[in-house]
Amino acid sequence: MAEPTEDVTYRHEDWYAQELVDRHFVRCSFFHVDLTEAISQRAIFTECVFGNVAFNASRHTDSAFTRCTFKRCNLFEAEFTGCKLVGSSFDQCDLRPLRISGGDWSFVALPGADLRGVSITDVRMREVDLTGANLTDATVTGADLSGAQLHSSRLSGADLRGSDLTALDPTVVERAGAIVDAEQAIVLAQALGFQIR
């Protein structure tokens, strides 16, 4: 791993298709940086700020964005594989279509996010804030959503099979057509006060 780059501000830079391998950024700010089709591998971003950054069609593998802030960023067709985003927040970002596979997105703030049709598989998302998020027709399978904030989220048509839904109150979400497995159905029935015998 390279020596960390600390407290640097990047503005209006063209990092199109850059390969960020084993790079480490600490408390850096990125404003209007073009990371379209960029690739990161084992890169670490700690407490960084991303404002109006284009992550379009970027690919991130085994990278970490911990306690980072994303504001008005475009993640159209971005992919995160085995990445750690613990404690990061997304505000007014374009997040679709987005593909997340594996990794740890616990304590991530995504309130009100438009996540229609995104793919989230086998991701740890403990205590993630999805308050008011729109997950219509999304795939959220094998995700650890324990302690998640899901109030007023829209789950219509979403595939939720294999995910931990113990934090889900079925009465405060839109759920028409959401797909669950038999084990989850029991958890949801119990949340509604039914006794399973």
Automatic annotation (TrEMBL):
> What Pfam families would the database entry show?
Pentapeptide (PF00805), Pentapeptide_4 (PF13599)
Which InterPro entries does this entry report, sorted A to Z? 5peptide_repeat, Pentapeptide-BTB/POZ_domain
What name appears for this protein in its UniProt entry? Answer: Pentapeptide repeat-containing protein
Q: Which organism is it from?
A: Micromonospora sicca
